[in-house]
Amino acid sequence: MNNWTDFRDRSQGRRHAGAGTFLIEAARDLRTTGAVAPSGRALARVLTEPVGARPSRPMAVLEAGAGTGAVTRALVPQLPRGSSLDIVESNPRFAGRLRRLVASHPDLLSRPARVEVHQTRVEELDTDARYDVIVSGLPLTNFAPDQVERIMSRYMDLLHPGGILTYFAYLGTRRARALTASRAEARRHAEVDEVMAAYQRAYATGRWSVWANLPPAHVWQLRKAGVSADNMRHAMVGAWQ
Fold first, then answer.
1. Is 151 within 8 Å of 122 (Cβ atoms)?
2. What domains lie within the chain, and their CATH numbers?
3. In principle, which of 29, 97, 132, 213 could form an S-S bond with 59, CB 3.0–4.6 Å?
4. Could you report the per-residue pLDDT of 96-146, keeping only the tens digit for each?
């Protein structure tokens, strides 16, 4: 059995185990885990598309909120030779799984890249690095509006000019919470939507619907390219009026 076949068989077992771990962590704290199942393959493929679109040169990539590695597994095979990947995950159990995934992935043996797992929050990541692509798996709609603003601001600081951020949002969550949540929770969710809408107006280059995911999701792509601070402030003011 070759290394890839052996890894594929082990990976399938780990994927099932990862789903169980994900469910346990969701039961512990759904607010920070964000779902009851890892991202599906279709969602992972769309999130990581900017990496695969530029295969001819090394790039610096950041994955934030990697969970049990569902998106990481789609991301690693697309890394061009000589690239770097920083994986950020605040949950210590998830971070441990990610380190084991990185240590055993055959693509990192056959096509070397620098890959490091950081157990921290992305807004607290201690680095001077700047990235060509950031892939976010954080459940932003579960956070407080000021935390979402800190995270999005940090993402933009970490991108090279022309760099791309991809992130997802589950479809229908605002409507569902409007029907079932408390008034304060519905207001928090609406304020998060307003923060995200300001960044979308300033930076968005595309949005895709991924129906083959549980639950279905939108994937947004934002590009840091020539947007002035004045334009961003104008967008933020418009979001809160």
1. yes
2. 3-240 (3.40.50.150)
3. 132
4. 999 999 998 888 877 667 999 999 999 999 999 999 999 999 999 899 999
